[in-house]
Amino acid sequence: MDGEEQVQETLMIRNMVSNCCSILLRERLEAAGIMVQKVQLGQAVIFYPRNSSKREQIPGILKEIGLDLIESREEVLVEQIKQAVIELIHHMNNVDSVVRKSDYLVEKIGYSYPHLSKLFHAHEPVTLERYVILQKIERIKQLIDNDEFTLSEIAFMMDYSSVQYLSGQFHKITGMTVSDYKASDRSSKRPLDRLF
Question: 83 burial class (0-12, 13-18, 19+ CB within 10 angstroms)?
């Protein structure tokens, strides 16, 4: 940090849904001369010279790769909710059979579930419950595409009481049965940040 006074800042970032986003963001920030200490889903810790224009470049860098800077505290919480849901369902194989979604979110974010649910719906066009269901359906599509598990195993992993319940919800959300989905070209998958 060559003698010039450095500013450390934690950026809160919308639409980071995978490790690829983290890697790409790190590369872009470093290419712009911004030092990166840490990048994880939803945030980056950076350093830049106090008297430089580096800070003003950040929103443009984010926009180029489909990300946005989050400024308000409520928006930060909504993004943390989204990241926690994605983490639980997509990265932890929804260990929901042990931990209920509401308990996981309360523990991870530190607010009551009714508060998180109300806040989420105030900022997003769907309820928190619907968002969780949409994420689960996308994860089910991935698991079906990977063809490693039976539908019974997927139902258990995703905390459905039965294959019939999973199939019914899948049909309700996607408009097709699981069998129809398996037989299709499977182009109905959507990016995790564009489910609604």
Answer: buried
